[in-house]
Design brief:
The structure holds three protein chains of three kinds. By secondary structure, chain B is α+β, with helices and mostly antiparallel strands. Chain B has helices at residues 40-50, 85-89, 113-121, 144-152, 160-164, 166-170, 177-187, 195-202, 216-220, 227-243; strands at 11-21, 24-34, 70-73, 76-79, 94-97, 104-106, 109-110. Chain C is an all-alpha fold. Classes of the chains: A mainly alpha, B alpha+beta, C mainly alpha.
Chain lengths: 117, 247, 113
């Protein structure tokens, strides 16, 4: 028997950064085909795209869009952190990076929200 | 004991110790007289000497050199010989378990075989040339390779990073931070001849490319090494070798 | 998959990430500006139609994402679903091609449409 069960470990900030990065990436990847399909409506002319945009102009969809923008910003910040970890001669602690990433995604979300209201 | 040594008040503390073997077990509770500046290893030894001589655990040097006394202390892997009660438990309960990710032999002693087997699988040993070196290799301490090797060379193989690593928990085949850190120091040893063979050994989803850069290894290493940095170096070396078709 | 293939996928993931880092910044800025006063097809198309610069930008953006997303999904499939082997590699490839085609179709839509 391995010791995993009883030696319940505390987790560091890096694990949460990883989870946010993975879940945001998963959500974005699943959203992409829909996004491309919607914009592809423009091939059938402006009216088709407008039809979709009118459909999308409802609170629930707006909320989902807001969430996607935050996820995109979070995934960007997490990705920059990973690139820094793997390619830059970085300092030992990157909690600053993670904090900056969280702050940046929050900021992007707020800016988007403020423009919506 | 003199009055001067006795300056810290001794109090009865609750200590939970995992008791069991490979088939299972549970935490047992002991009341132990302790001072805040006593080490966790002291308390475990006190339990064995005064309550249950059957308690199994492992240690040798008691001064942070041998790397055998690592255990899970209140949820974190640590050297018990260099961890003071006051810094980990304050006034609360102390909970001691064996290291995570390794099979238990008995109580607090783990089987380290899998851990060290992975050092071998990662080509974590020096490969010189077969004959005697014609001349003594001159390695400048200030060269980038030597500096990179020096940054990871102080590992004593205690297994703390291995127990702290989430990826080891998720993927039992993963070589782990200690073995990869060792491979990285050797990859930067200009006298070593196993470059491509080692990169082959450490590339792939059980090797350096499985690392998620959580940096739990660096957070927990008692020697303040940063295996994540070495693993990132291996990722880059392996990718470069893959581009050239060497691996 | 061999260690060599894993190493190359890792590199492709990072190289595309570097491109995406730039593209996403531009994309986020565009979103923030575009949603002011609500979205309309006319507004989107006025910006993109017959614009070589936007066409090139979005074509590169789509290519980078078509490389990046399937490799990430492949890692998740391996780690969380335990899916491995040839079927996974072929699915990853198919996902990349599908994303590229869908994406470029959308670019053609907003540039030529």
């Amino acid at each position: 028997m391995s010791a995993v069960g009883f030696a319940a470990r505390r987790r560091g900030a890096g694990v949460w950064a990883f989870l946010v990065h993975r879940l945001s990436g998963l959500a974005l990847a699943l959203f992409l085909p829909l996004h491309f399909w919607a914009l592809g409506q423009a091939i059938q002319g402006e009216a088709a795209l407008d039809g979709f945009l009118r459909w999308a102009d409802r609170p629930l969809v707006k909320l989902a869009e807001w969430a996607l923008v935050v996820l995109l910003a979070a995934h960007l910040a997490g990705g920059l952190r990973l690139l820094a970890v793997e390619f830059l001669p970085w300092s030992d602690r990157q909690k600053t990076w993670i904090a900056l990433g969280a702050g940046f995604s929050l900021l992007a979300g707020l800016v988007f929200l403020l423009n919506l209201l | 004991m003199t009055q001067a040594q006795d300056s810290e008040p001794e109090s009865l503390r609750t200590v939970q110790v995992w008791r069991g073997d490979a088939t299972g077990g549970a935490f047992a509770e002991y009341r132990v007289p302790a001072r805040p500046r006593q080490t966790i290893l002291d308390l475990v030894t006190w339990i064995q000497r005064h309550i249950d001589p059957g308690l199994s655990y492992r240690y040798a040097c008691r001064v942070g050199m041998c790397g055998t006394c690592a255990m899970t202390v209140n949820g974190r892997p640590r050297w018990t010989c260099r961890t003071l009660l006051g810094t980990v438990a304050g006034e609360g309960t102390l909970r001691i378990a064996p290291l995570a990710h390794l099979p238990v032999i008995k109580d607090l002693a783990c089987d380290m075989a899998a851990f060290f087997d992975k050092w071998r699988r990662a080509e974590g040993r020096f490969h010189g040339i077969d004959s005697v070196e014609p001349e003594i290799a001159v390695v400048s301490p200030s060269s980038p390779e030597r500096q990179a090797a020096d940054a990871g060379i102080e590992c004593i193989g205690c297994g703390v990073c291995y127990a702290a690593c989430d990826v080891v928990g998720w993927n039992p085949e993963y070589l782990g931070p200690a073995a990869l850190n060792r491979a990285w120091t050797l990859a930067n040893d200009v006298r070593d001849r196993a470059g491509v063979a080692r990169l082959k050994a450490v590339a792939g989803d059980a090797g350096c490319h499985a690392c998620h850069s959580h940096q739990s290894c660096a957070d927990h290493c008692p020697k303040h090494l940063n295996p994540t940095r070495g693993i990132a170096g291996l990722k880059r070396l392996a990718a470069r070798a893959a581009l050239k078709g060497e691996i | 998959m061999t260690g060599r293939a894993e190493a190359l996928l890792w590199l492709a993931q990072r190289a595309s990430a570097a491109v995406l880092g730039f593209c996403v910044l531009v994309h986020l800025a565009t979103i923030v500006l575009a949603v002011q006063g609500g979205l309309s097809a006319a507004e989107i198309l006025a910006r993109t139609q017959a614009s070589l610069a936007w066409a090139a930008f979005y074509a590169v953006f789509v290519l980078a994402v078509a490389v990046h997303a399937p490799i990430g999904l492949r890692t998740i499939a391996r780690e969380w679903l335990g899916w491995r082997g040839r079927s996974l590699e072929l699915t990853t490839l198919a996902a990349g091609i599908a994303l590229a085609i869908l994406g470029w179709r959308a670019v053609a839509g907003v540039v030529l449409g």
